[in-house]
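Postdoc handover notes: sequence design on the structure in folder B. Input tokens:
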């Protein structure tokens, strides 16, 4: 008689209606035998995609969005058209095309007024801008679910990205200084550009009272603009004067990273029924990893996104005599599975009765569908 290899019951008929990944609210778990052996469990619930069809109503909605965006662009372009003629500030009226002389202060005021009106248009189009609330998963609709024992060493990695090589330059540095002191955005940008040019002219015209180092730097900048020869001369000046332009490097916030997770499980059956349960678990995960292929006739033309997963962790409370499972305060946004790996019979080449593998080690990788926000963590507990 062949060895039992840990099986303690003979093969039993399994319902043919159990089709993993069919969206029939299948409930799979491991271990199947003695499930209360592990107090804490991690559950993976399938979130079926809700597709949006492109109806005529949707098309009209898109047209209105594009039209509003085009109107805003046209408005901004027309109301901010300026032209310099003979050293004077001239403003061309967008409605008539007539040119009217305005002093530099009047031009700045006109541009500022146009910018304010454009911003008001954008606010009306997009609505009030503010912090979005935390994600709420209480109303998520799920179908199939797999419940596994809680693995060891769950790593959570939060991170954001900064551009640590962003160079403001001289003009940007002046703008930052002006804005920090309460100057308007328009005035800071205009003033820094004009101020930089006037400083260079003054350095060469009268020598002013600026230090020799600053004068050398401004001279280098002016000469470097004179083509390749100017760049070479400026390099020589830099080597001789031993001073160079400060690029005003800043760390600028760039983006929030998506969180990624990996989980590993070793599934060793102790019965034929449990071996089939493991097969169904693996089939469900592999099914939900892949997208649905869309075809026109026999030609594959696209993909429908794979379904997402809701991950939650529950555990019995050692201090609770009722042994009821409670949610653990470690939450995940809906995730996509990005990889699934299975290794069969890692420790023995022998098969089990019923031609089943004696062990299946699985590893799954997931990525959250969007980046976390401050409110998600503060108010939602993610």
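Designed sequence:
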């Amino acid at each position: 008689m062949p060895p039992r290899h840990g099986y303690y019951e003979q093969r039993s008929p399994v319902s043919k209606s159990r089709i993993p990944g069919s969206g029939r609210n299948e409930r799979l778990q491991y271990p199947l035998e003695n499930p209360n052996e592990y107090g804490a469990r991690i559950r993976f619930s399938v979130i079926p995609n809700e597709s949006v069809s492109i109806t005529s109503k949707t098309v009209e909605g898109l047209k209105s969005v594009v039209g509003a965006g085009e109107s805003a662009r046209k408005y901004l372009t027309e109301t901010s058209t300026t032209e310099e003629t003979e050293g004077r500030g001239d403003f061309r009226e967008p409605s008539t095309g007539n040119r009217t002389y305005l002093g530099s202060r009047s031009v700045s005021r006109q541009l500022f007024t146009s910018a304010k009106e454009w911003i008001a248009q954008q606010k009306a189009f997009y609505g009030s801008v503010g912090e979005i609330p935390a994600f709420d998963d209480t109303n998520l609709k799920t179908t199939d679910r797999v419940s596994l024992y809680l693995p060891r060493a769950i790593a959570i990695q939060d991170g954001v990205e900064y551009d640590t090589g962003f160079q403001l330059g001289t003009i940007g540095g002046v703008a930052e200084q002006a804005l920090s002191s309460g100057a308007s955005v328009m005035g800071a940008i205009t003033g820094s550009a004009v101020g930089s040019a006037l400083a260079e002219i003054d350095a060469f015209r009268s020598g002013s009272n600026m230090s020799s180092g600053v004068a050398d730097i401004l001279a280098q900048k002016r000469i470097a603009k004179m083509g390749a020869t100017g760049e070479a001369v400026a390099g020589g000046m830099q080597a001789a004067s031993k001073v160079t332009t400060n690029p005003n490097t800043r760390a600028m916030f760039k983006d929030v990273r998506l969180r990624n997770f990996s989980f590993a499980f070793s599934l060793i059956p102790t019965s034929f029924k449990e071996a089939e349960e493991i097969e169904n678990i693996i089939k469900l995960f592999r099914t939900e990893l892949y997208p649905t292929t869309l075809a026109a006739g026999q030609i594959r033309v696209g993909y429908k996104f794979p379904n997402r997963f809701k991950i939650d962790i529950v555990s019995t409370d050692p201090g609770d005599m009722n042994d009821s499972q409670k949610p653990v305060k470690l939450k995940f946004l809906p995730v996509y599975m990005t990889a699934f790996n299975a290794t069969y019979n890692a420790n023995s080449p022998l098969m089990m009765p019923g031609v089943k593998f004696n062990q299946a080690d699985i590893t799954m990788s997931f990525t959250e569908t969007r980046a976390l926000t401050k409110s998600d963590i503060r108010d939602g507990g993610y």
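Context for whoever picks this up: Residues 56-79 form the longest helix (24 residues). Don't rerun without checking with the PI first.
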